[in-house]
Amino acid sequence: MKKQTTILLSALILTSFCGPAFQAATIQAATTDTQEMPTPTGQILNIGEKFELSDLKAEASIPIKAYAETGQFLEIGYIKLNQRDIWDLQQKKETIVNTPTIYTKSSWGGYLEYEALNINLNMVYDENTKTFTLLDNGKPINKLVCELYEGSAKIHYILKDTNEEFYSYEQTEALQYHDDPSENEFRVATLSSIHDAPDLIGYFDAYDIDFDALANWNPLNNYENEANFESPIVKEYDRKKIDKDNGTEYTVYLEKAKPYTVNFKVYLDNKPYFSKKVTGELNGSIPLQDEPKMPDSKVATLNKNKTAVSSINEYLPQLGTYIQTGSVLHHKIYERNFGEIGAANSIEGQPNFLNTGIYGISGEMLDNNQVVVEDENAGRTTTLELYYESNQSDDTNSTVTANVMINSNLGDQVVKNVTGEIGKDIQVTVPKKDGYVADKETVTAQVNQDGTITTKEKVTYTKKETSEEKPNNNNNQNGNNEISNLPSHYNGLVGTMKKNVDLYDFKTGQMTKNKQRQLAAYSDWKVDQIITLKGIKYYRVATNEWVKDSDIYRYVAQKGIVDTKDVEVTYLSTVEDKLINNRGLAANTAWKYDRIAYLGSNETKYYRVATDEFVKASDVINN
């Protein structure tokens, strides 16, 4: 029996900004029998073999070779003659015969069904030679040419980042007959729709994801289908080029998904008290976490009005940072979900703040006390903050002042003269090391009764890259203030902004505007010379074609990662060095950059994190 195939097309709804690109629907293929090649019955009549018509019985079979349109041999087919066919042949010395259906297997074992293109066959018997001839439209033939009617395809699901095969699957009835060749295509089954497929953790399913379209999507336009993560993968095929060895295996690359990240932060009197970063892979889950030590409820009170949540989607940074605060939010996350985490409740009737928080903000269902990471949370970073306030402002507790030893990969680091209240946890600033960046800004330390202050946390220092030096744009080779009217050698890169840029011709010590040519907006150019005339710098982008310094910006082509600092929002700027005030980067998130740009009249250093979005170097930490 042919396998029954079900392909499920679902849609991802991204918050409230866009609707699904495809309506949820189930497409179920009809179930048919995979037939084997028919076996010959009755007398065997070979082409060219002599026989007497009177010797024919009730049935006969004519073996004939069948070929695909590619020319490859498929199988031996059998033209069947029944009693009526034999009677007609004996009476009229000719009869109409039916071409067989050819069933064969591909090189990997999938089934293929072919129909003969020879559809007007006659069998004519010659009394003189005692042999028969097969005619197709009056022309003798001794073989059949067949076209593909139906078949199965083998799909190889490959992890794109490692190029390893994750799963292979026979998709039955994928190769269907269509009168219109332009319709010869099929939708690849997603792994979630295949019953025996293994769980796919950390990767998007078999979707045709256009990341460039996502990066350029404008939520303000509110276009449907613009931010779709679940477009089906469509494979095209040419029936005329398919045979047992060709055209029945297809490769699908599964995109690695960025994880879902939750930053949990607790503050006491507006100072950091506890923080934890939790991640979960797409289609995986976030398991229960150990409950953190919260401020003592006898001396501090949770200010529910200051409970805060902020989220940003890395795949769609255009949505900006989504922020909510207040007691209604706290009720939604904690009070409404109290007890939903099962046994993960702390003492004194208070919910487990970390686990209930992850559950409450994720919007997902629990599965065995774990938060499942669905498509809409891939690449999302959410920060949950709780604020405690001391019940009394006077300092009645004993304090300790001591040195704190922090273990690191560069040896023990000593922070001198740290003061804290006995029995309390405090945040200690990690020492800075020249030429290095620490993986955290503070560590949590315990103030002990014996007068010591200790921490169990370890700090890792990473050496800074030194290849991002700002390129020199001074063409004065003499080291004085004189302005030269002769070009100097300069090797660098420049980019245009949102307007086309005028070009200038250099002749007899003057620049003249080129009225016929311009540089396109948002384009990049290599320059090889620089000159200063009347206080204006010009860069040469082609033979005798120059651009003004004020019409472009200089940059270094370098890739890397920067981390935002522990601030609510890190704002972005355009290439014109103008602030983008309707969105920003969330606290403690990592962002890839592809160039270091120097923007504005002061050539302030920026990292480019999107096509026209730059973050100021002083606002982030370069890893």
How far is the N terminus from the C terminus? 58 Å
Helix content: under 10%
Main sheet properties: 8 strands, mixed
So how many helices?
4
- Overall pLDDT, averaged? 82
Number of strands: 47
Provide the low-confidence segments as ranges.
1-34, 343-347, 477-483
Domain module count: 6
Taken from the alpha-carbon principal axes, the silhouette is elongated
User: Which structural category fits the helices and strands?
Assistant: mainly beta
Strand content: 35-45%
Rg, Cα atoms, Å: 37 Å
Biased composition (Basic and acidic residues): 459-471
Signal peptide: 1-23
Keywords: Signal
Biased composition (Low complexity): 472-481
Written overview of the protein:
It contains four helices and 47 strands. With 623 residues, the chain is mainly beta. It folds into six domains: 6-32 and 151-254, no CATH class; 43-149, no CATH class; 260-390, no CATH class; 399-463, no CATH class; 488-556; 560-622. Strands 3, 4, 5, 7, 8, 12, 13 and 16 form an eight-stranded mixed beta sheet that branches. An eight-stranded antiparallel beta sheet has the order 38-37-36-33-39-44-45-46, with no helix packed on it. Strands 17, 18, 20, 21, 22 and 24 form a six-stranded mixed beta sheet that branches. It is elongated. Mean pLDDT is 82; it is low at 1-34, 343-347 and 477-483.
